[in-house]
Amino acid sequence: MKKQVTIIGSGIVGAVTAYYLSADPTLDVTIYDEGIGQATKNSAGIISPWLSKRRNKRWYQLAKDGAALYPEIVDATQMGYSVYQQAGTIVTRENPDDLQALYYLANERKQQAPQIGHIETLTAAEVQDRIPLLTNPQPGVFISGGARVDGDKFAHNLLKYAEERNLVRHKGKVTLGDQGQLLTTHGQQSYDTLILAVGAWLKPLLLPMKLVADVRPQKGQLIELQLPETWGDNVPVLMPEGERDFIPFTRNKLVVGATHEDDMGYDLQVSSLIEDDLFASGLKLDQDLNKDEITQVKVGTRAYTRDFAPFFGPLPDNPHILVASGLGSSGLTTGPMIGKLLAEYVQTGQQDWARYTKPVENYLEEAD
């Protein structure tokens, strides 16, 4: 008899977990998703963790290994440039000393992460040559291994690929009972293993089980513009000093963002003030932008923990229920590795995750 694995949440973690598990003929894999406010669908899409100044070594290991998984998954599923493209990243600094320090950091990190690729410093004029849209460039450091990904398309393609192998998908809201029962619009459903990959919604989902997850929501907004000019596939992503990220996707789609808005709860309303702020940031980089070129404003909800670190693994008192949350704004980078590790745990029952995350119990408390 096949083992029944059920995943709640079809963002980056849920989709990658389903992708790996769907290759196992001994499993029946089902995924449920409400699809509201998902961070994966509303993220900027930069995959370039190597120049981060974050001191959390576990986070960096997870992000580094997650970034390295993308080419492998993309090749195996034959996704196109409109989904993922390793066009490089440019990180700008106006101060020459800061720029030099960034260059040294990149070369230091490359020793343990060859995926960073070619590294070079660029003058402002050279940055503009790489990203012709810019009218106000700054000097920067270029790394060829940086990439952009359309998180929504990436997750969608993975789930579609998994459906062709061994995945059943359901839309709709699910809740848990006090003993971890899976309650859906079609009644209670059985499972052998349940994976909760719901990001910022983990806290309310676990409350019926008298567990309080150390997760808070953070609102993120970005704007997409459709520009009249077109460009090739190899225009790098720009992470400018003092402004929002500037991501030219294939052909003529430009993304500017995203914001980090605390104390907004699960609010998914578009803010005209934020839209103006994002456009103003883009305008400082490209003075030819026109507000009429904005095609949509995306809004999502990220999950953060007290120590800003992701966590994942089985519940301490229920190894048949796995959780993953706290990915923050680097979810598209850390998420693939988390999904792969969760899938391996389902298949083997083994975990050796100390280099990636603290134990799950560090992020859970019993409710009063």
Short description:
By secondary structure, this protein is an alpha+beta fold. Helix content is 28%, strand content 29%. The protein contains eight helices and 22 strands.
> What is the chain-wise order of helices and strands?
EHEEHEEHEHEEHEEEEEHEEEEEHEEEHE
* Proportion of residues in β-strands: 25-35%
Q: How many strands, what sense, and barrel or not for the largest sheet?
A: 6 strands, mixed
The CATH topology assignment of the largest domain is FAD/NAD(P)-binding domain
**CATH-level-4 superfamily name of the largest domain:** FAD/NAD(P)-binding domain
- Looking at how many chains there are and whether they match, the oligomeric state comes to single chain
* Total domain units: 2
* Outline type: globular
The total count of strands amounts to 22
User: Which structural class do the helices and strands define?
Assistant: alpha+beta
Q: What is the alpha-carbon Rg in Å?
A: 21 Å
The CATH class name of the largest domain reads: Alpha Beta
Widest sheet: strand ordering: 9-2-1-13-21-20
Unreliable spans: none
CATH architecture label name of the largest domain: 3-Layer(bba) Sandwich
Average pLDDT over all residues: 95
Number of helices: 8
Helix content: 25-40%
Please tell me about this protein's structure.
With 368 residues, the protein is α+β, with helices and mostly antiparallel strands. The protein is 28% helix and 29% strand. The protein has 8 helices and 22 strands. Helix 1 links the parallel strand 1 and strand 2 (27-33). Helix 1 (12-21) runs parallel beside helix 5, helix 1 (12-21) runs parallel beside helix 8 and helix 2 crosses helix 8. The radius of gyration is 21 Å and the shape is globular. The mean pLDDT is 95.
